[in-house]
Write a sequence for this structure.
């Protein structure tokens, strides 16, 4: 794994509780489906932060919002993962909860049932430009785009980062929520972002193009660096309107694909901070993704999600 570079990584995003139910084959409507069920710490933003720390970034910070019901547990888990968390405790809403239904067939594909709870109630009052003190890179979870208060916080964070010359990365997060937000609105909101890290489906949705390489190329006319995550097919790196690198995935036997994209993003950002170029950073992302899919849950080894 890479050693940390100069400056911290600040992640702003969601911290949620994952309830992971692993079942085999179709769900049986109206009756029981046998499953293995675990409650684990999650959230795309929190997962990215944990993977960046696991991949050698020495100073990883996280801003998120949780309910009083699980604030202590989440802070403890993040601290154990090497993340300096600033968790705002919402006075009303409970911690967000995601039910992850994972088919234990060959692809270990998952379906999410999401109650965002406190996670999308981050607001401009939770932000301060001083959060960027000592920060070399800012990463924003795309889930911030999907509520009015967190959109306003995202805009404030982008403005602060622009004023300080801190490069910003963003993961679009969800095709379902992106469809509701709209492509034009998304591109307007992410103006000024330096790195975009969509999945294949997100890239195709944002461009209307069926081919991931074409989608990556088109997006790189809007954002300077685009890295499209292709799962078992690796990743594409694009800039200035063209794909310039195709990075292969590492072989892996998937158990649970929850958080694999977050693992890629965390390792990618850690590698950039350590001085790697985008192609090599994407290779580190693919390494982390392979490790992630072999585990249950969205976090790296060492925390509650560790496989025994």
């Amino acid at each position: 794994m890479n050693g940390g570079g100069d400056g911290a990584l600040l992640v702003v995003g969601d911290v949620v509780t994952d309830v992971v139910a692993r079942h085999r084959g179709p769900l049986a409507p109206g009756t029981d489906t046998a499953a293995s069920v675990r409650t684990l710490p999650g959230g795309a933003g929190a997962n990215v932060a944990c993977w960046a720390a696991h991949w050698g970034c020495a100073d990883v910070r996280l801003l998120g919002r949780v309910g009083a019901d699980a604030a202590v547990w989440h802070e403890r888990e993040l601290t154990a993962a090497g993340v300096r968390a600033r968790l705002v405790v919402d006075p009303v809403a409970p911690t967000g909860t995601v039910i992850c239904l994972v088919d234990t067939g060959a692809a270990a594909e998952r379906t999410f049932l999401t109650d965002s709870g406190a996670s999308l109630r981050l607001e401009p009052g939770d932000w301060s430009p001083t959060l960027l003190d000592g920060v070399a890179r800012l990463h924003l979870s795309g889930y911030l785009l999907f509520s009015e208060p967190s959109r306003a916080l995202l805009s404030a964070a982008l403005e602060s980062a622009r004023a300080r010359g801190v490069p910003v990365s963003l993961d679009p997060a969800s095709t379902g929520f992106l469809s509701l937000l709209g492509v034009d609105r998304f591109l307007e909101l992410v103006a000024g972002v330096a790195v975009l890290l969509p999945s294949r489906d997100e890239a195709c949705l944002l461009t209307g193009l069926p081919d991931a390489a074409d989608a990556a190329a088109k997006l790189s006319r809007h954002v300077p660096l685009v890295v499209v995550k292709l799962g078992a097919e690796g990743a594409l790196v694009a800039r200035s309107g063209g794909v310039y690198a195709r990075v292969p995935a590492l072989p892996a036997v998937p158990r649970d694909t929850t958080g694999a994209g977050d693992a890629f993003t965390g390792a990618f950002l850690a590698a950039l901070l350590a001085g790697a170029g985008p192609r090599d950073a994407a290779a580190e992302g693919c390494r982390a993704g392979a490790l992630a899919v072999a585990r249950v849950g969205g976090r790296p080894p060492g925390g509650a999600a560790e496989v025994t």
User: Anything to note?
Assistant: The chain has one domain: 8-13+43-92+119-293. Residues 79 and 85 are 7 Å apart (CA to CA).
